[in-house]
Amino acid sequence: RRKGGVEQELASIAPILEQARKAVGGIKSDNLNEIRSLKMPPEAIRDVLEGVLRIMGNFDTSWVSMKRFLGNRSVKDEILNFDSRKITPEIRDSVNQLLKTKPNSFEHANIYRVSVAAA
């Protein structure tokens, strides 16, 4: 019974995941380098990167850690091939808290205004 609910939930987010995959796939290395070159990123970029790192189980969300993550040659593949089954309830709660406390940082228009790559 629980499995059916999980399958239904996964089916409902499948289009969102596909859209996210396309967006990540379209990120150019130059865009990532541009973000990495910043002394400190705009708040929206920092918050989005923090969310991505948290989802992937990395709770070191310092700018140094974020730049290291972005500098990884396979960063796009890591994101695209990430196994969502690794997301624990604690990780989900942590990301939900970030989304609740910084909702404006996750609005496409705000992110796009500060960086095409982060959008």
Give the mean pLDDT.
85
Ends apart, CA distance between termini: 37 Å
Query: How much of the sequence is in beta strands?
Result: under 5%
Proportion in helices? 55-70%
Largest sheet: none
Class computed from helices, strands and strand pairing = mainly alpha
**Regions with pLDDT < 50 over 5+ consecutive residues?**
none
Count of alpha and pi helical runs: 7
Q: Shape, please?
A: globular
Radius of gyration: 15 Å
Compressed to H and E, one letter per element, the order equals: HHHHHHH
Number of strands: 0
Summed up:
This protein is about 65% helix and about 0% strand. The protein has helices at about 1-25, 30-35, 45-55, 65-70, 75-80, 90-100, 110-115. The radius of gyration is 15 Å and the shape is globular.
